[in-house]
Design brief:
The chain is α+β, with helices and mostly antiparallel strands. The protein has one domain: Immunoglobulin-like. The protein has three helices and 14 strands. A four-stranded antiparallel sheet has the order 1-2-5-12, with no helix packed on it. A hairpin with a 2-residue loop joins strand 1 and strand 2. Helix 2 runs antiparallel to helix 3. The protein is globular. The N and C termini lie far apart (71 Å).
Amino acid sequence: MRLLVALFCSGLAIAQTHKPTPIVQGTDPKAKADDYEAHAKVGTVEIGAEFMVRSFSRGNAMYIANDYVTVEVALYAPKGESVEIGYLDFQLRINGKKQTLLAQNPYMAAASVAHPDWQPEKPGIEATAGAGNARVILGGPPHTPLPTGDPPGSAGPTIPQVPKPDPPEGIDMQPAKTADEIAVEAALPEGKNRAPVSGFLYFIYTGRTKSIKQVELLYRDTVLKLR
């Protein structure tokens, strides 16, 4: 009996040791809302925002989402309080147009980054999501022709694999993050968050960014002029 208890406790300790670290979503907020290009106060919450054109980043690496425009947003509630975040609270108005763009789920932006060859015009079920250029394809991704060369199903020429060196002892080598993973991790986290909190919002926009002269972020009943 004692042996079984010891084995159970040992297994539990190992499981806790190898428990995956939860992903912290968002970016590092600046010290205060005033440090952002545009800022305002909405009730007791302060908001800062910057128009990043098509780029998003986390840490030192920067990436591009070709079918989206992005805004980095930070929210500051009174000390010790939380702020409730929902993507439907944010809209983007470009060049003063009446129709606005809705903030999209970051997984949609990540899919676009991971598969830039997907074309919205391909067959599928189309639904206009909100306004502006926001069109969502509800069907599966279009078929992408295989590159010329070996026929489908062919294994192709065998390429010898070079063995990877073992990492130094005591160092856990983590695989490098891909751009689509960063798109999700750098997104403004939804739900109830401990303030301050910051991250990226993604708005579908396939037009030319050179034609963008004016950008306004609508947050609830407040308008922030980003450009």
